[in-house]
Structure formats: C-alpha cells, structure tokens
Write a structure and sequence with these properties.
This protein is an alpha+beta fold and 245 residues long. The protein has helices at 46-63, 100-104, 134-139, 145-168, 213-216, 220-234, 237-240, and strands spanning 6-9, 13-17, 23-28, 31-34, 39-42, 70-75, 78-82, 85-86, 89-96, 112-122, 131-132, 171-182, 188-191, 199-203. Strands 8, 9, 10, 11, 12, 13 and 14 form a seven-stranded antiparallel beta sheet that branches. A five-stranded antiparallel beta sheet has the order 1-2-3-7-6. Strands 4-5 form a two-stranded antiparallel sheet. A hairpin with an 8-residue loop joins strand 10 and strand 11. The chain is globular and about 50 Å long. The relative contact order is 0.16.
Length: 245
C-alpha cells in the first residue's frame, strides 16, 4: 500500500491518501497534547504503542459485531483504514464519575454510574468542544435522530465489549471517547482510535492511572511507563513478537 498525499494532520495523527480511493493510511505520531493543543510534547514510541493498542481493540470490537474502519496495521505506527466522512461528534461513555463531570455537577469523584452516562460533544476546537443534546445536533444539521440513536447504541455496545476486555487485563475502563464516520455507502462506522490517549484507564488493584491523564497532570515521566503497561497487558505475547519494541 503506497502512502501518497497528506489529507489531514491532526494533533497526534496524520492521514494520507493511498492508491485505493476508498482507503486511507493513518500515521500515529509521537506527539502528546493537552488543553486543545495548548501544551505539546513528543514522547518516543508513543504513536507506535497507541497504534498497536488501538488496532487490537478494533479487532476485538469487530469480533463483537462493531464495524470499525481498521483494515490492517501495516507498520507498528501505520494503519490502513476505510476512508470515512467523519461525524463531528465525540461520543463519551462514563462508567465512573471523575474529571470534568465532577467539576461541573454535584457528584462525588469515583461514583459508579449505572447505567453509564452517554455524553455527546461537538468536536470543534474553536468552540472548545461544547456538550450537545439531540436538539442541538439536529439544529446544526450534524445528524438525524435515527443517526443519533445509532451512535448511542453503538457506543454502549463498544462499552460492554471493552469493559470486559479491559477487566480481563486487570484494568478498569473509567470512561472513553470515540468518533464515528460514514463510509462510501453511508454506513456509520467506528473510526479514529481507542487508546490510552482517548480512555481513562485505572489499575484494578491500585487504581493507578494508566492513560493520558498523567500528562494532563504534569506527570510526564510516568506517561510512557503507563502506556507500555497497557500494551503489555492487552497484547498477547505471540502478537508482541511481531513488533520490535
């Protein structure tokens, strides 16, 4: 598969055209950002670990019946994926109350949420990703009610699969954000990534953070140690053998 023209360079990933019009190449870079990109660092092999973890999670979701844009991880930090027209909504699932939820609402940090909270934010840095509801989404022309219902249903299905997946690895899936897009036939497909960049992950025994929140809190020297720990727990040894890490 030939990497061709740059389509988009986001905060931590670059997307390129390929020799197939319906596929793209996604390069996971070593950039780490916080605060809408206000703070940025480069961390060695961060993109590689995220790409491998994300591709593994997408494989698990595919096996569980969730269609993703993953086609193949061709290099440790490069993924061939179905070309999607992304929907500008971040769907956030919260299983435990923490972060912005407890800063904004009168709920105690660490409160289990049953059923999980499904939150939708407008993916737009200019407006600082404000929270959406169904009426606002439809007023902005982002999605129909049927599409909104599909996004919520798929997000909850992803949550069910991943809570079990991470639990088996001794990790609590606290919350996560995901993005969807439409393929050439108009089907809604899970895209972007699911990695320690986009999830809050806590060690089941110690409740230690294993995700990007460490970077947000200025614990830069602990970030890659946490990402490697997640990699070691969720990637089987026979699959690790493919990568020179």
């Amino acid at each position: 598969m030939t990497k061709k023209d740059l389509i988009n360079s986001g905060k931590v990933k670059s997307v390129f055209t390929t020799d197939n019009d319906n596929e793209v190449l996604i390069e996971f870079r070593d950039d780490m950002t916080a605060g809408d990109g206000a703070r940025k660092e480069v961390m060695s092999k961060k993109g590689t670990y995220n790409a491998i973890i994300s591709s593994k999670i997408f494989q698990v979701l595919e096996e569980g019946g969730v269609k993703t844009q993953l086609i193949e991880l061709i290099k440790p930090n490069e993924m061939i994926a179905t070309k999607l027209e992304m929907i500008p909504i971040e769907v956030i699932i919260r299983n435990i109350a923490t972060g912005s939820l407890v800063r904004t609402y009168p709920i105690e940090d660490g409160t289990p949420l049953d059923p999980p909270i499904v939150q939708m934010d407008y993916k737009n840095d200019e407006f600082h990703d404000p929270m959406l509801n169904d009426s606002i989404i439809k007023a902005l022309g982002i999605a129909t009610q049927e599409e909104i219902d599909t996004l919520k249903e798929l997000a909850l299905k992803v949550n069910d699969i991943l809570r079990e997946f991470f639990d088996e690895a001794g990790i609590i899936l606290v919350d996560f954000k995901i993005e969807f897009g439409k393929d050439k036939d108009g089907n809604i497909v899970l895209g972007d990534e699911i990695s320690p960049d986009s999830c809050r992950l806590w060690d089941k025994e110690t409740l230690d953070m294993l995700d990007k929140e460490l970077f947000r809190k200025g614990k830069d020297d602990e970030v890659m140690e946490a990402y490697v720990e997640v990699y070691n727990r969720v990637i089987p040894d026979e699959e690790k053998a493919k990568f020179d890490l």
